[in-house]
Amino acid sequence: MRLCRFDDDRIGLVQGDQVSDVSAALELLEPRRWPAPPGDALIARLDAVLERARLLAREAPRRPLAAVRLKAPVANPSKIVNAPINYQAHIDEAKRDPGIAHGREIKTIADWGLFLKSSSSLIGAGEPIRLRFPGRRNDHEVELAVVIGREANRVPRADALSYVCGYSIGLDMTLRGPELPSFRKSIDTYSVLGPWLVTRDELPDPAALELWLSVNGEPRQRSNTRRMVYDVPRLIEYASSFYTLYPGDLIFSGTPEGVGPVKPGDEIRAGIEGIGELVVRVAPEYAG
Ligand code: MN
Predict the structure, then answer these.
(1) How many angstroms does the Cα of residue 70 sit away from the middle of ligand 1?
(2) What angle is formed at CA 233 by the lines to CA 44 and CA 152, rounded to 5 degrees?
């Protein structure tokens, strides 16, 4: 199933180029209380919400996908976990290109570990990326985004995929420069998730998916998730060996080669086999 969030925080099931408004299923969510438990309230109840949504979709009003404004399908991840260098060809280009490395010695994911992006940087496909720092390089990075479905602490890789509820397309927008990655990559709007969440049953093998990205129709990135250095189960094992993962937490699994700059007004089109394509605009002006 394909679940999206759109317009004024409505939820929909996507079928072809139509979205069925199944927002009535949100009544299954726990009423808000303070302090909220960590994690995303909808993802924590995802199975029940999808079961209700499937029933509602028979009679639900439908709209063309092109007529709705897509938001990130996960509204409140407690953290966005990122793999810094997880495709060998991207590691090679980072070593060659001083505009990427900025004087840092490029090591391995085993040396560097993972890093976090701020959850306040998250947007969906229907919202513009607002670039900052006109004099500096702002790059696109397409990544398979893994959505954690239930609490995961010290999970062995053999069980890891059972903690996943679905997948989406992630854009890890990146300001290049000397600062630490979590600072440069946490700018507002620099994490794009969408266009929707595809449930795990539709993608039984996340290690064999083509992924690609173009800017204004020009191909920039193309690879396959089988080229990851740490595959999805190993990333979950690695992340959960340091911290507990909560429902709705996202793992951006690293980008392949071909990263490059974008500028105001560009259109980014990013796709992953079995998920679909995300089209997002870069706002025509820098954000101050
Ligand atoms: Mn990245």
Answers:
(1) 22
(2) 35
